[in-house]
Amino acid sequence: MKIQKITIYDIAQRAGASASTVSSALDGSWKKRRISKKTAERIQEIAVQMDFTINRQAQGLRKAKSGLVGMILPEHNNRFFSDLSQSFAGEVRQRGNCPAIISTRRNEEEELEVVSNFISYAIDALFIVGATNPIALSKLCKSAELPHVFVDQPCELAPSIVTDNYFGAAELTNHLISFSPKSNQELSNQVYFLGGDATLPASSRRIDGFVDTLNNAGIGFTQSHINACGYDRDRAGKELNKLYAQRGGLPSILLINSIDCFEGALKFFSQLPEEEVTKCTIGCFDYDPFGILLRFPVHMIRQRANKLVKEAYDCIENNSGEPILKLIKPELIIP
Predict the structure, then answer these.
(1) Per residue in 14-27, pLDDT tens?
(2) Per the CATH hierarchy, to which homologous superfamily does domain 68-158+305-329 belong?
(3) Domain 165-302 is in which class?
(4) What is the pTM of this model?
């Protein structure tokens, strides 16, 4: 009489667990799936009791790399993040793998949930862009032994490839000062910074570069000249409208932080006479090629998305996961 072979489904039925949980408990990948040690040991004990024999050849196939490489980012409809995702997809496909890109909308709970889901799919590596809580995400990845790298967001626990935001803001501010027809003395209390989140590293370093440049140039200002109002387009437009009303016009120099805030400012500028807008020297820490078509010059900083992704991939492939910070200088784009 032929003896029926025991399968993982038989074990799953006795253990009261799913077949995938049994498979992970037996092939050693249960840690990556965040299955408890107690559950894994109970399943392994049942397998022994049932004289279950693991198919080592099939197990080897299951342990092979999935070919999936993940990326999480705040949003898709931002040119910089879009450039990052396109560069990432190209690098992944060049290596014969499949990119998986998900927006987490700057929501901490959503970031953790998405990373947990990525881990359950056994992705080979994860690129984390603009996270709200990098420490928590890195700890989660480390617990699953998932290679990961942070892009545009430093993390003290993992490799981080970040734009040199201080350098970019200082270079842009210096350029705006030199481009303005007014002297440094005349520019006192005439230079403003709008947009971004001062609690996040990128905006914080940009504000530092802006402030230090004004101090070095001897241009007076107060904290009220720095309005880190977030990244919402409508909010940025409203804050600029408020500044315009308070001053009775635009300032001599306006540095707008992020392309999202710039879009909000553009909506407000469209309501003003062209000659009034052109009297304000405008800069944007972000880049959009359509800026050259505007009716007034806008000086921009372009972050090097391709370079950021290439350096991040180098960390994944050649770094042991040690926390390093590499700064990539952005480019000043003059209209």
Answers:
(1) 899 887 788 778 76
(2) Response regulator (3.40.50.2300)
(3) alpha beta
(4) 0.79
